[in-house]
Amino acid sequence: MKISSLQDCSVFIDTNILIYAFTSTRFTPACEELLEKVRNGVVKGHINSTVIDEFFHKVLLMQVYTEKGMQPKEAIAFLKQNPERIADFSLPFDVTREVLHDYGMNVLDTAPLMDDTLGLSRKYGLLFSDALHAASCMHYTLDHLITNDRDFSRVDCLSVIAP
């Protein structure tokens, strides 16, 4: 299945999809289309706080790389040594706020999912955050997980769609 054929369904949107939608890659058009479908109510979009955390963090680092010409380790060290400078980088605040407020996404509560997350991590060899995304999909009976992460293909009970 392709993003272009999605309608009247519920989807969990992984961090990489948001990154693609707000950058310029070969996946950007499909990811922008997905977010428009969510905005227009054609598809019910869901994320969790881990997606928001990862998205904000990655966008912040991308802006630091671009504006300061730093390598990833340098950018992280710069932010750790100068936490007051985080507010100088407006892009992560702006785009995270846009994701939270302009698309009508549902932010799922993951508090009740910790035991399931640990079990999925062990069973499928997933990192904790990926197992949490899978547990979110299963617990909330979402139709599809939209991601470009091939690790989810190991979870046989998920319908995974790549851009």
Brief summary of the model shown:
The protein has 163 residues and is of the alpha/beta class. Helices cover 52% and strands 12% of the residues. The chain has seven helices and five strands; from the N terminus they run E-H-H-E-H-H-H-E-H-H-E-E.
Short descriptors:
five-stranded parallel β-sheet, alpha/beta, 52% helix, Rossmann fold, 5 strands, 12% strand, 163 residues, globular
Output mean pLDDT.
Answer: 96
If helices are DSSP runs of H or I spanning 4 or more residues, what is the number of helices?
Answer: 7
Order of helices and strands: EHHEHHHEHHEE
Q: DSSP strand (E) fraction? A: 5-15%
What does this structure look like?
It is a single chain. With about 160 residues, the chain is α/β, with parallel strands linked by helices. It has seven helices and five strands. It has a five-stranded parallel β-sheet with strand order 3-2-1-4-5, sandwiched between helices. α1 crosses α2, α1 packs across α3 and α6 packs across α7. The radius of gyration is 16 Å and the shape is globular. It starts with 8 loop residues before the first strand and ends with a strand.
Outline the secondary-structure elements.
Elements lengths: L8 E5 L1 H7 L6 H12 L3 E6 H20 L3 H10 L8 H13 L3 E3 L5 H11 L3 H12 L4 E3 L13 E2 L2
Parallel strand pairs: 1-2, 1-4, 2-3, 4-5
Helix pairs in contact: 1-2, 1-3, 3-5, 6-7
